[in-house]
Amino acid sequence: MYQCTGEEILRELLQHLGLKKGEPKTEEIVRTSICIPTNMPYVNNIWLRRKRGDRPPVVPEGVTNLGLLGQYVELEREIAFTFEYSTRTAWEAIYRMLKRGPAPPDVYQGQYDPKGVWAATKVLLGLTKT
Ligand SMILES: Cc1cc2nc3c(=O)[nH]c(=O)nc-3n(C[C@H](O)[C@H](O)[C@H](O)COP(=O)(O)OP(=O)(O)OC[C@H]3O[C@@H](n4cnc5c(N)ncnc54)[C@H](O)[C@@H]3O)c2cc1C
Predict the structure, then answer these.
(1) Is 6 in the pocket of ligand 1 (CB under 6 A)?
(2) What is the pTM of this model?
């Protein structure tokens, strides 16, 4: 990947999307796109080992005037990386410190949702398209 040009990366992506090389649509996309390879060496850091105590809670114990936001704050059962995670830290900080607005909803636990489990099973078994 590091040695690829932008066009090569774009073509790789298009192929995964089912757009074959040489087809008019594919070539039009390639011709009209600007693809500049960008190295993001730290992008995976959100997925570093995570255990209790690694990340501070939204409102650290004993603190009354500081809320912590973002990916590096602990939210139990929530999955780091998503926008939802960061947004929830802000929501929780406001709710807990200012006692204002509705409480954040419970973290969705897809593994206990029969509908979600069934949908994932169907994808795994190739019974439906993703
Ligand atoms: C390639 C990629 C794809 C992604 N795809 C998805 C996706 O499909 N769905 C999804 O939910 N999430 C996705 N994410 C994750 C999502 O982008 C982040 O979870 C989200 O942006 C985190 O928001 P944030 O406000 O906590 O932090 P950030 O968006 O990182 O904002 C932090 C801000 O603080 C600024 N900053 C840092 N240090 C300082 C400083 N010292 N002084 C002043 N400003 C500073 C930064 O410049 C930045 O603007 C993706 C991330 C990447 C990199």
Answers:
(1) no
(2) 0.77
